[in-house]
Amino acid sequence: LKLLTTSSEKQRKSYNLLTVLVFTHKAGVVEEQQEAGAAESDRPCPGGWTKYKSRCFMFVNTAMTWPQAESYCLSLGANLASVHNYWENYNLQQLVLKNTGQHHATWIGGSDAVQVEQWFWSDGSKFDYQNWERGEPNNYGGREPCIHMNAGGDKMWNDLDCGVNLPSVCALRTC
Ligand SMILES: [Ca+2]
Ligand SMILES: [Ca+2]
């Protein structure tokens, strides 16, 4: 009986230790996230960049192909903007409107260049939101791998030939 008790006490102790470790780990993660969140929201964007939530965006008026636009963003330590919800999309539309006076067709960072219908953002973030114009993405002519916003009557997204020259929106990488 004593042996059993000792063994179960040991188990309980190791369980408690495990609980403490898990709790400590979780608490640490939450703290880190809060710190990162606070630091990001306090940090102003560099000149010429517009802040939305934790990211900095810049409208690039020079019309370029999608790969040229992405390269230009890269040269600024940024990528073409990824879009993850309705309000981010709306905010980017407002940025374009402010700069061009209209809902001008504008490159964002999505493409399915590797495999048709397998969409990725050039900044490596999850493709967790879409805002396609009716009938899109239609991969017209079998070669439309790049996403632009403000397409068609509803000003939503269209997949397009990456070689078309359009303005673009860069987003700074946050780290
Ligand atoms: Ca396509
Ligand atoms: Ca299309």
Automatic annotation (TrEMBL):
Name the domain of life: Eukaryota
| CDD domains per UniProt | CLECT
- Residue ranges spanning the membrane: these are none
InterPro entries to which the protein is assigned, alphabetical:
C-type_lectin-like, C-type_lectin-like/link_sf, C-type_lectin/snaclec_domain, C-type_lectin_CS, CTDL_fold
| Pfam short name (any one) | Lectin_C
Q: Residue limits of the C-type lectin domain? A: 52-171
Q: Which UniProt keywords apply?
A: Disulfide bond
For this entry, the protein name equals C-type lectin domain-containing protein
- Organism, per UniProt? Hucho hucho
Q: What is the lineage of its organism?
A: Eukaryota, Metazoa, Chordata, Craniata, Vertebrata
